[in-house]
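Problem: given the chain below (282 residues), write out its structure.
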Amino acid sequence: MVRRLPQLAFALATAAALLAPAAHAADDFEYVALGDSAAAGPLIPNQDPNLLCFRSEMNYPQVAAALIGADLVDVTCSGAKIDDFSQRQYGILPPQYDVLSRRTDLVTVTIGGNDVQLVQAAVSCLNLLPEPLGKSCADRFTAGGRDELGSRIDALAPKVDEMLAQIRYRAPNAEVVLVGYGTYLRPGGCYPLQPMWSRDADYVQSSVDKLSAMLRERAEAHGAGFVDLGPVSVGHDTCAAPKDKYFEGLVPTSEAAPLHPNARGMAAFGQEVADAVSDQQA
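Solution.
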């Protein structure tokens, strides 16, 4: 019996060593970020080596993950639509859903802008000349008493429902948080600093707000969380001074894509997401 004690001790020590990494892995907090360019952060330094997605290493998922101490799997990708969650984006990139699993603890999602073509609509609203030397996009999108962008947003709601159900199915243990879009334009805009007539600026921002409101409504219907970036970005829109803005305008004043968040905005948005997640866990 005495001769077997060293062997037993060695066996126990070996078993403990083998079990230790597994126990540590079980304690890791896995955070998966899904979404489009509003989450990815195109052109914000430093960019992920996967140049197809224009994904920044300083986007809001990266900021939030650092604040909450999470292991981040970031598959946000510029140009993404909800369909790209279940199929290959550009015919090359794996579906974003593929990174979800039972081990996932947190999922954040920013999506919908490309589905309803909000950026394209905003670009079509640019007018280099003051009224009446041009055409109002608000008039065009609401001709005949029908709000074209509003109708697109309403039609997207069932797809958001399906998306949330898929996320819940693939990551049943995760907290799910939809993250809305922010305040890109203040009331009345700031023509000619941003070359969009006042009523067109109001129409574009009201459409952004409508999309965020729909995302909030669907999130609540599915028991998911929602982070509203509208209030936190008030006063930090494309009309603000370069040192204050969270979104770049048509001509960027910092390293970021036009009509997208900059690094300052991503830092603020990451803080909002981290605070919301921490409040849910408290």
